[in-house]
Amino acid sequence: MRFEQLLRASLPVGFTLPDEIWALINWLEAQGQFYRYRVTNDPFMPTVPVKDMDALWSNLAFVIEPDMVRYWFGKDEPTKVIVPLVRCGGDGSHLAIWKDKGVDRFVFMGSEGDVFHITNDPRKFILLLTMGYTYLEGRYSFDLPPAEAYAEYFDDIWPDPIAIKEHIQSLYGLSYPRTGAELLSDYDPDPFLDYVQAQLG
Question: Cα(88)–Cα(37) distance, rounded to whole angstroms?
Fold first, then answer.
């Protein structure tokens, strides 16, 4: 079964993802980017192409983890409106989509409880996923250019994911910013933080 099929089957009843997300997943799948974690056998898809699992260098990967939201909140209700899409750090942080009264909002859910709204624009979200970050483990991570974030972990040259960037630029006519912080929507108060605080009481 393809990754797309597995992800579709895992979504809550009536939950939809933007067409741009499916287009990215389909492109990655066409590049052979469907793997399974060796220990758990769970499926995943790196957000930038690699030649094989041994060449993985980024923590950002599409995952299928329907129970993650339930464990994070300690109850079932949020699972109807939040789906984790991308594991983005070795610490267990995730990027998710939140259905907020009919509005698709892409959000950050940190392993230590840090949460914030990223953007409502699926194309900005795709830029973030494909610009070449090694990890996104908190708001501070978005402030670093991807090459600098890579240099914190590795001594060799940053493997700039040129192929997928060229694909996205050609498809949507977009330009990549210097940092992920430039893609964040400026909300005050933050609607996702307000939602999380209300759910946690």
Answer: 15
d(C-alpha 74, C-alpha 103), whole Å: 24
Beta carbons of 83 and 15 less than 8 angstroms apart: yes
Model pTM above 0.90: yes
Distances (CA, A) of 28 to 43, 62, 83, 106: 14, 10, 20, 20
Q: What is the number of alpha carbons within 13 Å of residue 112 lying toward its C-beta?
A: 7
Record the tokens describing residue 101, joined without a space.
Answer: 């009264």
Both structure tokens of 47: 């957000």
pLDDT, one tens digit per residue, over 125-165 is 999 999 999 999 999 999 999 999 999 989 999 999 999 99
- Cβ(27)–Cβ(126) below 8 Å: no
Confidence of residue 2 (pLDDT cuts 50, 70, 90): very high
Q: From start to end of 20-152, where are the E strands? A: 35-36, 43-46, 61-63, 82-87, 94-100, 103-109, 115-119
pLDDT digit string, tens, across residues 65-97: 989 999 999 999 999 999 999 999 988 999 999
Calpha distance 18→58 (Å, rounded): 24
Is-contact 80 12, C-beta < 8 A?
yes
